[in-house]
């Protein structure tokens, strides 16, 4: 077992939760706040290990279904439709920031060597940057705290929220400090490293650069800021290119094994040798486990993929649904085993689609078992999906059936930062800056398209009639590539729609394909709309206020200088 895995969290009950999994480092949330503590490197290291708990694991994939890629069987509406009294989205992150600031404040008087203090300061500032970037995404303006608040007389105690742009400049400073002072480490990518800090910087800077470009005064409380957008997009490219310049990182080949199974970064039992993984969570059988595979291969009705999502994938000729000359027939047809198959459809599409969904349609009244490999004992329960499209992406038949189909027994590794995202970030940032070249495309998205068995993208792609975002053909195609590469991952889709100012695409009244699923027009008795399975009859209506979460009323009652977000009054 690798050294980093020796830190096993004492609270094992928390580790076994599929939706609240923690990285297996030993946290130190309670401590004696004395100078001797902060001058003992073992204790400081143990304390900083607690910051690994700030990161999601398996629960960051598949489960976040407020998007137009999936349909939750019981329907996913907006996170908040009314103003809450309290919210963990606000309070938990400030708790984490306070923990980081305890470290940063006390390192100033520590007797550790300057080099050692810089390393732990870098860890602290990296994680403070992460929490503040998330708070700004959720709430916009937010109070900036760069020290532990200990008295009510501290001006920050009852001060107003700080401007989001100024907070994000602090975040950028923290990220740059972390990049400059964390060590390179590609040998154990479950630990803090310069590469992990660069990946975080790439993500955060792309988000804020595009958000500043597309935001509006009415919806976001601030007008676009071209200068700030350029600054953050440029910083995104610097971070992305630093990672791309590392010889260690490269895309994996999607070569089938002897059974014909392809293993990707999403369903690997061990990412230690995977050259796409920049930072990941290593799970261990019977020690630290999750339930991601179970929810996508057992009897629980799956959050099925939408027609809108399926239609986004290009055909093998590199053309979209509206212009391809290939066969577009997506009707499920009965195969020799009596199952309803779309294999004929998948073979004509982007290879990533066949790695995302099963070739068999299954829904209520038409269950199906993904029994690979064939189990020695009884077959697992039949699968069903809200839309007929079941999620294949995360399952791994190298685990036995009993480990795959129980909620807290799965042990595939989970990526938290990974190389394909960096390639996508680089391409999008340069396209938004207007500096992208064909060579840039060839070093980024075209590597992903080649692996997906699609033609190269050029600087002047053909127009897609489905482009409804008001952007150039090139940016539309780069966004498409991102969507198809990152389906069900970290809820990227929802946050991409936020930063592109396209959140109205989640309005299912205007965009009904976000509620529809597979073509079941050949299947007798299947409830459908124009031949497509109804994932849900519920509707989600867009309102401009949803671009930001509402500030909890309790925070405003405690501090009357905090104002509510736009359109929530």
Give a description of the structure.
The chain has 569 residues and is mainly alpha-helical. The protein contains 20 helices and nine strands. The protein has a three-stranded antiparallel β-sheet with strand order 7-9-8, with no helix packed on it. The chain has a two-stranded antiparallel ribbon with strand order 1-3. A hairpin with a 2-residue loop joins strand 8 (528-529) and strand 9 (532-534). Helix 5 runs antiparallel to helix 6. It starts with 11 loop residues before the first helix and ends in an 11-residue tail after the last helix. Mean pLDDT is 92; it is low at 1-29.
Please specify the SSE layout and strand pairing.
Blueprint: H1 12-15, H2 35-38, H3 41-49, E1 70-71, H4 88-107, H5 114-139, H6 164-181, H7 194-214, H8 217-220, H9 226-244, E2 277-281, H10 292-295, E3 304-305, H11 307-312, E4 333-334, E5 340-341, H12 343-346, H13 351-356, H14 401-404, E6 414-418, H15 419-433, H16 438-443, H17 445-451, H18 473-485, H19 492-499, E7 516-519, E8 528-529, E9 532-534, H20 553-558
Antiparallel strand pairs: 1-3, 2-6, 4-5, 7-9, 8-9
Helix pairs in contact: 3-5, 4-5, 5-6, 6-7, 7-9, 7-15, 7-19, 9-15, 15-18
Essential attributes:
20 helices, two-stranded antiparallel sheet, three-stranded antiparallel sheet, 569 residues
Order of helices and strands: HHHEHHHHHHEHEHEEHHHEHHHHHEEEH
Q: Largest sheet, if any?
A: 3 strands, antiparallel
Mean pLDDT: 92
Query: What is the number of strand segments?
Result: 9
Rounded to an integer in angstroms, the radius of gyration calculated over CA atoms is 24 Å
**Percent helix:** 25-40%
Distance between the termini: 54 Å
Q: Total helix count? A: 20
Decide which structural class fits the backbone: mainly alpha
Strand content: under 5%
Low-confidence stretches: 1-29
Strand order of the largest sheet: 7-9-8
Which of globular, elongated, flat, extended, rod-shaped describes the shape? Answer: globular
């Amino acid at each position: 077992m690798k050294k980093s895995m020796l830190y096993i969290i004492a609270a094992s009950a928390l580790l076994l939760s599929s939706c609240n999994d923690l990285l297996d480092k030993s946290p130190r949330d309670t401590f004696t706040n004395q100078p001797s503590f902060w001058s003992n490197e073992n204790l400081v290291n143990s304390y900083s290990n607690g910051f690994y708990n700030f990161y999601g694991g398996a629960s960051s994939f598949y489960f976040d279904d407020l998007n137009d890629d999936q349909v939750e069987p019981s329907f996913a509406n907006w996170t908040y439709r009314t103003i809450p009294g309290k919210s963990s989205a606000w309070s938990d992150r400030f708790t984490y920031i306070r923990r980081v600031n305890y470290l940063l404040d006390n390192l100033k008087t520590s007797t550790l060597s300057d080099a050692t203090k810089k390393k732990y300061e870098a860890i602290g500032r990296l994680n403070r940057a992460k929490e503040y970037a998330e708070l700004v995404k959720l709430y916009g303006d937010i109070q900036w705290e760069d020290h532990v608040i200990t008295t009510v007389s501290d001006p920050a105690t009852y001060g107003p929220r700080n401007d989001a742009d100024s907070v994000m400049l602090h975040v950028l400073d923290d990220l740059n400090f972390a990049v400059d002072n964390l060590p390179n480490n590609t040998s154990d990518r479950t630990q803090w490293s310069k590469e992990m800090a660069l990946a975080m910087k790439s993500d955060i800077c792309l988000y804020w650069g595009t958000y500043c470009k597309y935001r509006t005064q009415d919806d976001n409380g601030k007008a676009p800021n071209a200068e700030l957008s350029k600054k953050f997009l440029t910083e995104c490219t610097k971070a992305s290119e630093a990672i791309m310049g590392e010889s260690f990182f490269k895309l994996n080949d999607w070569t089938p094994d002897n059974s014909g199974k392809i293993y990707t970064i999403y369903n690997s039992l061990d990412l230690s040798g995977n050259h796409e993984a920049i930072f990941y969570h290593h799970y261990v059988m019977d020690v630290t486990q999750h339930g991601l595979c179970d929810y996508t291969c057992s009897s629980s009705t799956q959050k099925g993929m939408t027609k809108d999502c399926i239609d986004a994938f290009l055909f093998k000729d590199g053309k979209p649904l509206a212009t391809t000359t290939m066969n577009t027939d997506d009707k499920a047809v009965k195969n020799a085993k009596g199952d309803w198959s779309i294999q004929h459809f998948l073979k004509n599409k982007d290879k990533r689609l066949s790695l995302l969904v099963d070739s068999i349609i299954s829904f209520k009244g038409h269950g199906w078992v993904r029994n690979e490999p064939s189990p020695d004992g009884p077959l697992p329960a039949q699968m069903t999906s809200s839309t007929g499209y079941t999620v294949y992406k995360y399952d791994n038949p190298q685990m036995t059936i009993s480990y795959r189909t129980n909620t807290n027994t799965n042990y595939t590794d989970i990526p938290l930062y990974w190389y394909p995202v960096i390639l996508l970030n680089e391409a999008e940032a340069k396209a938004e800056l207007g500096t992208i070249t064909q060579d840039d495309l060839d070093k980024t998205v075209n590597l992903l398209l080649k692996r997906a068995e699609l033609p190269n993208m050029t600087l002047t792609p053909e127009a897609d009639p489905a482009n409804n975002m008001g952007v150039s053909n090139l940016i539309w195609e780069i966004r498409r590539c991102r969507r198809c590469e990152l389906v069900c991952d970290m809820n990227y889709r929802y946050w991409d729609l936020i930063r592109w100012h396209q959140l109205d695409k989640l309005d299912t009244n205007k965009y009904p394909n976000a509620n529809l699923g597979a073509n079941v027009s050949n299947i007798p008795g299947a409830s459908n709309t124009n031949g497509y399975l109804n994932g849900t009859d519920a509707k989600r209506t867009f309102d401009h206020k949803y671009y930001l979460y509402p500030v909890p009323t309790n925070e405003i009652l405690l501090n009357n200088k905090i104002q509510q977000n736009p359109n929530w009054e």
